[in-house]
Design a protein that fits this description.
By secondary structure, the chain is an alpha/beta fold. The strands form four sheets. The chain has a five-stranded antiparallel sheet. It contains 22 helices and 17 strands. The N and C termini lie far apart (103 Å).
Length: 662
């Protein structure tokens, strides 16, 4: 015996240990290998409601509800036999049974020890009733919060769906109205007739502007406003266009409309020109509307310049009626105007400035107002824009100008021969008629279908060079139509048909959905002939629809031998067949190496025989694909240019092949 392990000292140690264990709030129980309780501390007595004398010497199963109470002895025997247990030395959740019959949730940790050659088991238990209650409350609160969030999301989704649907329903007839007026303006009209058409067009566009205001405000409110950053000349692409839009209105009121631009303005900056124009349009429109004498000035001051950005201050000053301080505080709230009869006297939706505030915030800028009744108003917009190294190719540049009359539209058979026949798909009869007439005015022959299934049947003939399709149609919608066409092209290794979405849907996500479905571009309803002409020039330029050939070069190559000339061209056409298939495969798999290789091969062969336009198209695609492949920074416009170059090369190849492209 160790000198300190006297019976007296051991008794003292055991007494101290008992006192310590009794002071612990957790329940501690020790049982033997038969499940008989040998020790229960004060915490166990209080937890289960038994005094010590009622616990000691009884089977611990008494403290367990069914069915655990009936199984406990079996668990002990199995453990003693196998030494395997899922609970030993692990914390687990169990239920306990109090003397009064109450079942209580417990956290249990079980350990074991050998004492005089016999297995003993000690369990440490904690009542987690309150913890479970709090967890249940937290879970219920979280569930209620999630339900509230789901209801809010559903409400927002319902609102978005409603807005998109209403936009589609309103824009569809508006496309017919504006398209018909656009076509009517091309006819020989008298002065009075032209004025009438102009007033009708202005009224239709004002209605469309109010619709756009409501949609823009909803997108800003929902955080769905998306900006398209482009290299932009702020002077020519923004300020000049804003002034041009309001020049006639201000002149009719006898107002001076002036500009003042800081000479330090960078040639090009990175900005969404459409949204910047929208803010300035609002400022200038209000200034002209509320000014009856004097003038309006749009100025631009460069506040700061770094190596990468410029901070600008746009200011629109007028000598109009002015606004009181009290009204200024209200004006930037939605559906609010300075006076109760402002809408009746001047028109408008009351959303303009609220939308401008949201747009400015999206651009990282801020709007302020300075005004006094009878003195006039100054609207200020300050924002910082990245400096761009070179001008961009904004799709909107020149979109307000009417397109030239290119040529009389050919017949369908001639259009098939020159690979310029267009297929129009729309379930709205008026839209089909208007679009067919617009295409005719632009020099294109076209056929039409009322849904995707009809379109597929017509496309099976292989006569069409471009498809313009509505997205929302019965039987088969435009998205499904595009996906079906792309799948068939992949299965049969056919060149890609240019597909243009033509839809009245209002949100940017709809354009993304169209592109994901395999469409190449997007026209929003209502469209203008200028916008339609711009898309046609990109994907189906009339000037490139027939094979162009340098006859002098070919004559030199063949030595004037007619038979040799024919043989050279036959061999070249056969090579074009092979190259068209290789190009289609590279495009399908987005194989940039393959595109570079095939485009380079086409460019070289085309130059060798004098196929001028085909050589140019090959060089354009090679340059675009090489830039992407080599990891050069490529903008969204750059990716679009690559796709356009690929389609142009397909079109040029089709002009050289013996069979028109499907």
């Amino acid at each position: 015996m160790h000198r300190n392990d006297t019976p007296a000292s051991l008794a003292q140690d055991q007494q101290r240990l008992a006192v310590m264990l009794d002071s612990v709030s957790d329940a501690i129980i020790t049982i033997d290998d038969q499940g008989i309780i040998e020790y229960a501390n004060r915490g166990a007595q209080e937890l289960f409601g038994y005094p010590s004398q009622e616990l000691l010497g009884v089977n611990v199963a008494m403290l367990m509800p069914a069915p655990d109470s009936a199984r406990h002895d079996h668990y002990i025997r199995a453990y003693l036999k196998t030494g395997q247990s899922r609970v030993m030395h692990h914390r687990r959740s169990v239920n306990g049974l109090r003397k009064d019959g109450t079942v209580i949730p417990l956290d249990l940790t079980l350990g074991q020890v050998m004492e005089n050659g016999q297995q003993k088991f000690t369990g440490v238990m904690r009542d987690v009733t309150e913890q479970r209650r709090l967890q249940a409350l937290a879970a219920d609160a979280e569930r209620r919060l999630q339900e509230a969030k789901d209801r809010a999301d559903e409400a927002n989704q319902a609102k978005s769906t409603f807005l998109a649907t209403m936009s589609h329903e309103i824009r569809t007839p508006m496309n017919g109205v504006l398209g018909a007026l656009d076509l009517l303006a091309l006819d020989h009209l008298s002065g009075a007739q032209r004025d009438t058409v102009g007033m009708a067009t202005q009224s239709a566009r004002e209605l469309l502007r109010i619709l756009d205001d409501i949609l823009d405000f909803s997108k800003i409110e929902a955080g769905r406003m998306e900006l398209r950053q482009e290299r932009t000349s702020v002077r020519s692409d923004v300020i000049d266009k804003v002034i041009a839009t309001h020049a006639s209105t201000s002149a009719a009121k006898g107002l001076q409309l002036a500009t003042r631009i800081d000479a330090a303005l960078a040639p090009t900056l990175c900005v969404d020109p459409l949204r910047l124009r929208q803010i300035l349009h609002n400022f200038v429109s209000n200034a002209v509307k509320f000014t009856h004498q004097g003038g309006v000035e749009l100025s631009l001051q460069v506040l700061a310049t770094t190596t990468s950005a410029q901070t600008l201050r746009f200011a629109v000053r007028d000598t109009g009626i002015g606004i009181s301080a009290a009204d200024q505080a209200r004006l930037f709230h939605p559906f609010v105007q300075a006076e109760g009869d402002t809408t009746r006297r001047y028109g408008g939706s009351g959303l303009g400035l609220a939308i401008c505030m949201g747009l400015a915030a999206s651009m990282g800028g801020a709007i302020t107002m300075h005004s006094a009744p009878g003195v006039g108003t100054t609207m200020l917009l300050e924002l910082t824009l990245p400096i761009s190294a070179r001008p961009g190719d904004s799709r909107l540049a020149g979109a307000a100008m009417p397109p030239p009359r290119v040529r009389p539209a050919p017949g369908v058979d001639q259009a098939v021969r020159e690979h310029s026949l267009v297929l129009v798909v729309d379930d709205h009869a008026t839209n089909r008629t208007i679009l067919l007439r617009q295409l005719d005015a632009l020099g294109y022959a076209a056929e039409s279908a009322s849904n995707g299934l009809e379109a597929l049947a017509l496309l099976a003939s292989g006569r069409h060079a471009l498809l313009i399709s509505d997205c929302q149609m019965p039987e088969m919608d435009g998205y499904t139509l595009a996906r079906t066409i792309r799948r068939q092209e992949a299965e049969h290794q056919r060149p890609a048909l240019p597909i243009i979405a033509f839809t009245a849907n209002a949100f940017a996500g709809d354009a993304e959905r169209a592109l994901q479905a395999g469409m190449n571009d997007y026209l929003a309803k209502p469209t203008t002939m200028a916008a339609l002409h711009a898309v046609l020039k990109r994907y189906l330029p009339i000037g490139n629809s027939a094979a162009s050939l340098d006859e002098a070069h070919l004559a030199q190559l063949s030595g004037g031998d007619t038979a040799l000339r024919a043989a050279i061209l036959d061999e070249f056409r056969a090579a074009c067949e092979v190259d068209a298939l290789a190009l289609a495969a590279a495009g399908k798999h987005a194989d940039l190496d393959g595109m570079v290789h095939v485009a380079h091969r086409i460019r070289g062969a085309a130059r060798a025989v004098g196929a001028v336009s085909l050589a140019e198209a090959g060089a354009q695609l090679e340059q675009q694909a090489r830039a992407q492949r080599d990891g050069q920074p490529v903008s969204a416009n750059g990716l679009s240019a690559t796709a356009a170059a690929l389609l142009r090369l397909h079109t040029e190849l089709a002009a050289w092949r013996r069979v028109p492209p499907p």
